[in-house]
């Protein structure tokens, strides 16, 4: 092979190797850039999630403090005033009929008891003390005693709650669901079923009320009550599923992994 052609061939080979190396380094740089970009995106998402969690936790702590304050006010002020009014009724025996007095006394007694029950339901410490199971039982018993609702409660033997913080949030979610039923559903029956195994806890709250269009809800957005439920679910990594049809009631399902960290 002539010397000139050999030099050209060597030059082409060297240039080709050089181009391949440049291409390899460019690909390596692109790969490193994309990897760092992906890592940065993950870190940013994690930071946003932590920030959102902190905001939600702060909101819930403020809400619990508000509940505790309202509970204390009901117990210390309104309840005591009603008790004094009830006590003072005894001085009116000669001026009013005994039947009217007894009826008024019964109404005041009911008001005092309802306020006491409300105070207990709002008080976080009491919920933590008696546990989520007893809190749900008392909530359903209170609904039953109103005479407006028939209730049923079915709890798996294996369910004993998750932990103090998660149980409190779960109970608040159940309270919010029931509040929505009372306000909007025009229901006469409320049922709660709790299923539990080591990997999953499932709570289903159903009513026989008017129901609503879930597709319309997706378009218009959640009301404050439902938004509170979803915010709390996010705090404990729970899922919320709403099944409802106009005229056929509503079923809201909460699911949570008990072995997953909550807060």
TrEMBL record:
Transmembrane regions listed in the UniProt entry: 12-34
Domain Histidine kinase intervals: 69-260
Annotated Gene Ontology cellular component terms: membrane
Keyword Repeat: no
Matching CDD domains: HATPase_UhpB-NarQ-NarX-like
PROSITE patterns with a match to the protein in the record: HIS_KIN (PS50109)
SUPFAM superfamilies: ATPase domain of HSP90 chaperone/DNA topoisomerase II/histidine kinase (SSF55874)
The keyword Membrane is assigned to this record: yes
InterPro entries cross-referenced by the UniProt entry: HATPase_C_sf, HATPase_dom, His_kinase_dom, Sensor_HK_TwoCompSys, Sig_transdc_His_kin_sub3_dim/P
Keyword tags: Kinase, Membrane, Transferase, Transmembrane, Transmembrane helix, Two-component regulatory system
GO molecular function: phosphorelay sensor kinase activity; protein dimerization activity
Domain of life: Bacteria
Protein name from the UniProt record: Histidine kinase
Source organism per UniProt: Hydrobacter penzbergensis
